[in-house]
Design goal:
This protein is mainly beta. The chain has one domain. It has 2 helices and 10 strands. It has a 5-stranded mixed barrel with strand order 6-7-8-10-9. It has a 3-stranded antiparallel sheet with strand order 2-1-5. A two-stranded antiparallel ribbon has the order 3-4. Strand 7 and strand 8 form a beta hairpin.
Length: about 180
């Protein structure tokens, strides 16, 4: 028996597709967002090991114990640059940046983990370094939103903090941030 059917051609679709979905934030993330909009950064402190996670997760991943609203802990909007990347934009569809910019990891005072992907402004790229003390540049209160915070993410602060800038303080001692360098 021979197959007399002709092969089907590949289907190629030349259209941009956009998907939008939304989901309610967990109660822990709702409290986190409410604090951010008020100009505060809160996390959860483990009652056993005292590590502070921003945003709170509802548990300590090291001790494997639950954290609750009673373990809520406010951290500073000042911190230390632990590492950074200078990005030189390459033109591609949708790219809005045209000049080199910085993404840095910032260890907030009082937190046990870095906030990654933070923009650092007001510092020449050749002067940027680990250990530099920085502070948040908050958006005006009427511009702060919950955008970017997700149950599936890390609790972005981009919708409330424009960037971080140098405080003018002396560098942090390396012992403060060395375990957070990656």
């Amino acid at each position: 028996m021979s197959d007399t059917t002709t092969p089907k051609e590949n289907l190629v679709m030349n259209h941009l597709v956009s998907l939008s979905y939304s989901e309610e934030l967990t109660p822990i993330l709702e409290r986190y967002v409410d604090a951010l909009i008020d100009g505060r950064i809160v996390g959860h402190r483990c009652p056993q090991c005292s590590r502070v996670y921003v945003p709170g997760k509802g548990y300590c991943p090291i001790c494997v114990i639950e954290t609750t609203d009673n373990d809520e802990f406010e951290v500073s909007d000042h911190g230390t640059v632990t590492g950074f990347t200078i990005i030189t934009p390459v033109a591609y569809y949708g790219q809005t940046e045209t000049e080199p910019f910085v993404y840095a990891s910032v260890l907030l005072d009082g937190s046990s983990g870095n906030l990654g992907g933070q923009d650092i402004v007001g510092v020449a790229h050749d002067h940027l370094h680990s250990g530099m003390r920085v502070r948040a540049v908050w958006k005006p209160p009427n511009e702060r939103t919950a955008e970017g915070v997700s149950n599936r993410g890390w609790g972005s602060v981009a919708s409330v903090i424009d960037a971080f800038e140098w405080t003018g303080e002396p560098d942090a001692d390396r012992s403060v941030y060395e375990e957070h360098i990656f």
